[in-house]
Write a structure and sequence with these properties.
The complex is a heterodimer.
Chain A (H helix, E strand, L loop, with lengths): L2 E6 L7 H14 L4 E5 L7 H5 L9 H5 L5 H4 L1 E2 L6 E4 L12 H13 L4 E5 L6 H8 L3 E6 L3 H14 L4 H5 L5 E9 L1 H5 L6 H8 L3 E6 L2 H9 L10 H13 L16 H6 L2
Parallel strand pairs in A: 1-5, 1-6, 2-4, 2-5, 6-7, 7-8
Antiparallel strand pairs in A: 3-4
Chain B lengths: L13 H18 L6 H15 L7 E8 L2 E8 L8
Antiparallel strand pairs in B: 1-2
Classes of the chains: A alpha/beta, B alpha+beta.
């Protein structure tokens, strides 16, 4: 049984690609066979975050248009054997994606025995975002604790509830989860930032992960190694917890309280 | 965070954000799935009502509710109190 998960948000720059990369690595690291697809046609970036940009020969649009087979276009991750990346097209226009074509690719991945397909949605609510969510079984809605991101997420939740195959077929709809990124417990404590509970209350969804604001995210994208693989990082642990929750484990949220600092750290920064 | 940072905190605005979002999200959710003419209908109704009573634009609520099989268009106008007239 293949589960299709869309990582979406509406707003740009909130961490969809970072999240797609880390969730897919995390699932694959636990032995699942995972494909992660970049739906951002024209603005390919997942390949950079996954560190496979120089190995892209064929892309998603090539597969859909029959220029190559799906096998030729899937890039096997260097570190994790069961992880495959399907890059977005960089040059062609975004209308090159068709609903029929996307369905064919997803059907083939299902037939090939993939456990999970992660669809990395582009920002916005245009065609790419629509197709990324259309066939999904579950949705991870990435949100920053910030007004425009929360509002856009709510808009996306409306689309998930109406413009998806599951919604149209009326078989329970898409299962939705929230994943908060760039969370700063310190700013929440001082009342400068909305808390997990605030966002949860406004959007009315369960939270599958809270990723703290971390300098490790930029370092990870600089290096092309998804942040979940940096075991020393809080962001990595937070993403790994989210992966465990996706797999059905129930874990308490971490990194939502201000870390206790010693006297010297408080006085001199750290 | 050093010593100086202790003295220049940003004002707590999270509650303002939450309150604003609560209102706009509720408003956008109620408009979702409804027919496209609702906003225009609301505006035109407001024009007509304004000919007779001086009402606040916020005081006119147009809601469409679905109850098993049929739809109810609900119009609610909060008239200004006697003192204000």
């Amino acid at each position: 049984m293949t589960e299709i998960i869309v990582v979406t948000s509406g707003k740009g720059g909130v961490g969809k690609t970072t999240t797609s990369a880390s969730l897919s690595c995390g699932l694959a690291r636990r032995g699942k066979k995972v494909a992660v697809i970049d739906f951002d046609i024209g603005l390919r970036n997942l390949d950079l975050i996954m560190g496979c940009e120089r190995r892209v020969v064929y892309d998603f649009v090539n597969v859909i248009q029959g220029d190559c087979t799906l096998k030729q276009a899937l890039i096997n991750d260097k570190l994790i054997e069961t992880l495959y990346v399907l890059a977005a097209s960089q040059t062609r226009d975004k209308d090159a994606l068709s609903s029929e074509g996307v369905r064919r690719v997803l059907d083939e991945l299902t037939a090939d025995g993939f456990d999970y397909v992660i669809c990395d949605s582009p920002a916005g609510i245009e065609k790419g975002a629509h197709l990324a969510m259309y066939f999904a079984d579950r949705a991870v809605v990435v949100v920053n604790p910030e007004v425009s991101s929360v509002r856009d997420s709510d808009r996306i939740l409306g689309l998930l509830a109406s413009k998806t195959q599951r919604a149209e077929q009326g078989n329970g709809g898409v299962k939705e989860h929230l994943l908060l990124t760039r969370y700063s417990p310190r700013r929440v404590a001082t009342g400068e930032m909305m808390s997990v509970d605030d966002v949860k209350e406004i959007l009315g969804l369960d939270v599958i992960g809270v990723v703290p604001e971390s300098t490790d995210v930029l370092s990870a994208s600089n290096a092309g190694v998804p942040v979940i693989l940096n075991d020393a990082s809080d962001a990595s642990r937070a993403y790994d917890d989210a992966v465990a929750r996706l797999l059905g484990e129930s874990l308490p949220l971490r990194f939502v309280d201000v870390p206790k600092k010693g006297f010297f750290a408080r006085m001199f920064g750290g | 965070m050093g010593l100086l940072a202790l003295f220049r905190r940003n004002p707590p605005t999270a509650n303002v954000a939450k309150e604003r979002l609560r209102i706009i999200v509720a408003q956008e959710r109620s408009a979702r799935g409804g027919p496209d003419y609702l906003p225009l209908l609301r505006r035109e109704l407001l024009e007509v009502i304004k000919k007779y009573v001086n009402v606040d634009p916020e005081a006119v609520q147009v809601n469409l509710e679905r109850e098993d099989g049929h739809e109810v268009l609900e119009l609610s106008v909060a008239l200004p109190g006697a003192k204000q007239v």
